[in-house]
Amino acid sequence: MSTYHVRRAFETVATVSAGTTGTAKSDADESIREAVREAGGETFESVDAEATDVFEFPAGPFDPYRVTVQGTVTVTVESDEEASAAETGDQLIEDLLTAARLDGWEYLDDTTVTGAD
């Protein structure tokens, strides 16, 4: 068996309370990264997240920002072949993003499988 790294990009919306747009984006990045890390199991390898746009500005002084965040999650899969690793990794990533309870997430690309170790 070989070890494969399976990666997939996603997009979601984070709701954060902040005083400025920059702080809202930074807080949204961190909240998504933390949610995915906490949901990660033994196959979880890494997550990157970056706020790309403010989805909805606050309507009043104490209302939160809703921020669009794009990210990439990578898991590690033990498999005999790349096709099987892609299928297993794709399911692991879907389970991980579901467990992270992200708001309306969707995939941005197809599954990418890299190197067998």
From TrEMBL:
Q: What superkingdom heads the lineage?
A: Archaea
Q: What is this protein called?
A: Uncharacterized protein
Organism for this UniProt entry: Halorientalis pallida
